[in-house]
Specification:
- With 290 residues, the chain is of the alpha/beta class.
- It folds into two domains: 155 residues, Rossmann fold, CATH 3.40.50; 127 residues, Hypothetical Protein Tm841, Chain: A,domain 3, CATH 3.30.1180.
- It is built from eleven helices and 13 strands.
- A six-stranded mixed sheet has the order 10-9-8-13-11-12, sandwiched between helices. Strands 2-1-6-7 form a four-stranded parallel sheet, with helices on both faces.
- β3 and β4 form a beta hairpin.
- The longest helix is centred in the middle third of the chain and has 16 residues.
- The chain is globular.
- The chain starts with a strand and ends with a strand.
Length: 290
C-alpha cells in the first residue's frame, strides 16, 4: 500500500509548481528582515525574490529561524488521523535544527498512532540539493515503492548527492563565520572566488578557490565531471542567488560537456540566500562521492 505523504521544508528551494505537482507538504522556515518576520514560502508570496535580494545587496541585516515543533505536529498529525503514513525529509542537521525538530515531532506522534508509520530522515542536504533528494524520493514513491523503501533509498543515496557552489561576495560567508575576515579581505582584493561543497556531515566546506567569476563557475562543472554517475541520464539542479545568466552558463556547460539533457534551475530561497548572498551559484547532481 503506497498510502504515505512526503513532508519537507522550504530550504529545499524547489520551484513551487514542481512541489505542488509532486504533492509535497512543504513547511516554511522563517526570516526576519527590516524588523519584519516573513515565511520562506516556495512561491515567494510574502516578498519577491528581486526585493529580497535587493535588500541583501543593500546590506540589510537578515536572520533566519528553523521550523518549530508545533508546525511539524500540525502538519503531520492530520495525515496520520486520515490514515496516511508520513515521511519527513529535512534540511541538513549540519546547518539547521529543522531535522531534530522533525524527529521530535515523529517521536511524539508515533505512540498516539500505533497503526501508522512516521519517519524523519536527515537528508544532510541543503537548498536544491535537498530539493533534488526530495525529487528523487518522490520519483521512487511514484514508481510504487513503500514508505520504508523510499526512506531507505534516501539514506542510501544522500551521501552521493553532490553540492558544489561558489559565491560572488565573500563578505556574506565572513558574516556567517564560514571564512575569516582576513581571507575575505584578501580574496576580495585579488578577485578570488571560493569553491565550496557540503561534506558528509552536512556542513559547508571551503575546498578551493578560482581567480575570477567565470573560472569559479567552470570549476563547478569540473568537479561534476570528476564524480558524476552517468550524467547524461540524470536530472541536474542548479540554484542561484538572483544570477540567472550565470546559472544558464553552468546549465549549458553541463549539457555540452557531460551530455546532461534535463536541468532545472531556481532561485535560492531567502533562508539559504541570507547566508550565501546574491550571486551564489550552486550545482547539484548524483556522484560517486560528495
Amino acid at each position: 500500500m503506497n498510502n504515505f505523504s512526503i513532508i519537507t521544508d522550504s530550504s529545499c528551494d524547489l520551484p513551487a509548481e514542481m512541489a505542488n505537482d509532486m504533492e509535497l507538504t512543504v513547511l516554511p522556515l522563517s526570516f526576519n528582515l527590516m524588523d519584519m518576520e516573513y515565511y520562506n514560502y516556495l512561491d515567494w508570496c510574502q516578498i519577491s525574490s528581486k526585493d529580497f535580494y535587493s535588500h541583501i545587496r543593500a546590506g540589510e541585516k537578515c536572520t533566519t529561524s528553523a521550523v518549530n515543533l508545533d508546525a511539524f505536529i500540525k502538519a503531520i498529525e492530520p495525515k496520520l488521523k486520515n490514515g496516511e503514513d508520513v515521511l519527513c525529509l529535512a534540511f541538513s542537521s549540519g546547518l539547521s535544527n529543522t531535522y531534530n525538530t522533525a524527529k521530535l515531532a515523529c517521536e511524539e506522534l508515533s505512540p498516539k498512532y500505533p497503526d501508522r508509520k512516521v519517519y524523519a530522515v536527515d537528508t544532510l542536504c541543503a537548498s536544491m540539493g535537498e530539493g533534488l533528494m526530495v525529487y528523487l524520493a518522490a520519483q521512487e514513491k511514484k514508481r510504487g515503492k513503500s514508505i520504508e523503501e523510499v526512506r531507505d533509498f534516501v539514506e542510501e543515496n544522500k551521501l552521493h548527492l553532490c553540492h558544489w557552489f561558489t559565491v560572488e561576495d565573500l563578505n556574506h560567508l565572513k558574516r556567517g563565520g564560514r571564512i575569516s575576515a582576513a581571507t575575505a579581505l584578501i580574496g576580495t582584493m585579488l578577485s578570488f572566488k571560493p569553491v565550496l561543497h557540503v561534506d558528509d556531515e552536512g556542513h559547508l566546506i571551503n575546498v578551493g578557490k578560482a581567480r575570477g567569476r567565470r573560472a569559479s563557475l567552470t570549476a563547478l562543472v569540473d568537479h561534476m565531471e570528476e564524480t558524476a554517475i552517468d550524467p547524461a541520464s540524470q536530472t541536474v539542479f542548479i540554484s542561484h542567488g538572483d544570477s540567472q545568466e550565470d546559472a544558464d552558463f553552468v546549465a549549458e556547460e553541463v549539457k555540452n560537456r557531460l551530455g546532461v539533457k534535463k536541468v532545472i534551475t531556481n532561485y535560492i530561497g531567502p533562508v539559504i540566500g541570507t547566508h550565501s548572498g546574491p550571486g551564489t551559484i550552486a550545482l547539484f547532481f548524483l556522484g560517486s562521492k560528495r
